[in-house]
Design goal:
It is built from 13 helices and no strands. The protein is mostly helical. It has one domain. Helix 4 packs across helix 9. The longest helix has 32 residues. It starts with a helix and ends in a 7-residue tail after the last helix. Keywords: Membrane, Transmembrane, Transmembrane helix. This is Membrane protein. It comes from Rhodopirellula islandica. InterPro entries: ABC-2_transporter-like (IPR010390).
């Protein structure tokens, strides 16, 4: 009979006997799934810690939520005043009051997610470089871009997401029950809407991580939020208003070079207007949104890794 000490020695000599993840029967699919779950657990820890921190200062959290909702209500009031004098945003664009408020709700969905999960981390990136915190991030046994992007969550920014749900619900209800040109989105429209909202979030994140990465070369990038606000302003309106006159170059640039116009326009069109009939140009725009998402992620990843390659320790 083999002694207990001999068994322990055998285990020490063969690590796979101690670690079930090192068995010969381990498959690449299982390793990949385990890696994904590890990142999900890490993100869950980040989100939970951020919520605990926000709840520690409840008054500040409530004030931030009220401030966000107040800004949303002012926007709603502003556009309600505009629609007292016009039937649509832009001549012959099809963006009447109900459809445009669906457009606005889509804007709030996407921007609130970006501001909740990515903006706080992007704003702190230059501070990590200045204080040497990036040195510690590089030593962690996890992807640096993931760590930099998700370490903090601003839960109060999701107040606009809830406001967007209310606005979208009211707009859809009025759109479905009105006498002239009623519209009820199909299940396919809803599925595509969610998919392309996610694509919009990815494009916005890619733009943000590119802007953040410039902090490594510039030292400090305190104008990040201002520049972000200027760029995203173009995505807050239907793209048809740019596709005429002197706005045509802007339409081309912000559709095909920095594709912020497809971020909100594509999902909002899919929800607010019937799937069929659609022109070939509209379907090409939908296809371009998918391509732009892949290109944006690839390019932002390349920029971030290139920037990290230029990084020198804060102590050097």
């Amino acid at each position: 009979m083999q002694s207990k000490s001999t068994t322990n020695e055998a285990k020490q000599g063969n690590p796979s006997m101690d670690d079930p993840w090192m068995n010969d029967s381990e498959t690449p699919e299982r390793e990949t799934g385990s890696e994904w779950m590890r990142y999900v657990r890490v993100f869950g820890t980040f989100a939970r810690n951020s919520l605990v921190r926000d709840m520690t200062f409840r008054a500040n959290f409530v004030i931030e939520c009220v401030s966000s909702i107040g800004w949303t209500l002012m926007n709603v009031g502003f556009y309600l005043i505009i629609f007292q004098f016009t039937g649509s945003i832009g001549a012959d664009t099809g963006w009447d009051r109900e459809r445009f408020f669906l457009f606005l709700a889509t804007t709030w969905f996407i921007n609130s997610i970006v501001q909740a999960f990515f903006m706080p981390n992007a704003e702190e990136f230059s501070e990590l470089i200045r204080t040497g915190g990036l040195d510690f991030a590089l030593l962690k046994p996890i992807d640096t871009q993931f760590l930099i992007s998700f370490r903090r969550v601003s839960w109060s920014s999701l107040a606009n997401f809830l406001a967007g749900l209310v606005i979208a619900g009211v707009a859809l209800s009025r759109l479905a029950t009105r006498e002239v040109d009623p519209h009820i989105p199909s299940v396919l429209s809803l599925v595509l809407y969610v998919l392309f909202c996610m694509c919009g979030v990815v494009i916005m994140y890619s733009l943000m991580i590119c802007l953040s990465a410039t902090s490594i070369w510039l030292g400090r990038n305190q104008t990040l939020y201002n520049f972000w606000f200027y760029i995203t302003n173009f995505s807050r309106y239907p793209m048809e208003i740019y596709n005429r006159g002197w706005g045509t170059p802007m339409y081309g640039f912000f559709t095909f070079v920095v594709p912020v116009l497809v971020v909100v326009n594509v999902p909002a069109r899919l929800l607010a207007k019937p799937i069929d009939p659609r022109t070939n140009e509209e379907w090409m725009l939908v296809g371009w949104a998918l391509i732009a998402t892949v290109l944006s992620v690839t390019f932002s990843r390349w920029v971030f890794r290139r920037a990290l390659g230029s990084y020198r320790s804060a102590s050097s």
